[in-house]
Amino acid sequence: MEKIFIIIEVLQKNKVTAGTFYFTEEAYICWNTTKDKFTGLEFTWNKFLGELRNKFYPIIVQRQNEKEFSELR
Questions:
Q1: pLDDT tens across 18-41, in order?
Q2: For 35-65, what is each residue's pLDDT tens digit?
Q3: pTM of this prediction?
Q4: CA-based Rg of the chain, rounded to a whole angstrom?
Q5: How many angstroms separate the CA atoms of 2 and 49, rounded?
Q6: Contact 12, 44 (CB under 8 A)
Q7: What SS3 string covers the chain?
Q8: Is 44 left (phi over 0), alpha (psi -120 to 50) or beta?
Q9: Distances (CA, A) of 18 to 8, 21, 50
Q10: What whole-number distance in Å separates Cα of residue 63 and Cα of residue 69?
């Protein structure tokens, strides 16, 4: 998404709206049921990414990937 945002010059304030446009399946359903909780002036793209990572990329998986990456030779 970040690459697309750069190419089409998406403003910071529009990134959440633009990003959620591409949701499908579970992500789309999840967003539609929780978006009212998150929308507002203080809900930034970075906070949005954090919420996505928490939902779809658990910390245990992150740590495993970090460990594998650090052990690459």
A1: 888 888 888 888 888 888 877 766
A2: 887 776 678 888 888 887 887 777 788 888 8
A3: 0.60
A4: 15
A5: 11
A6: yes
A7: CHHHHHHCCCCHHHHHHHHHCCCCHHHHHHHHHHHHHHCCCCCCHHHHHHHHHHHHCCHHHHHHHHHHHHCCC
A8: beta
A9: 11, 5, 16
A10: 10
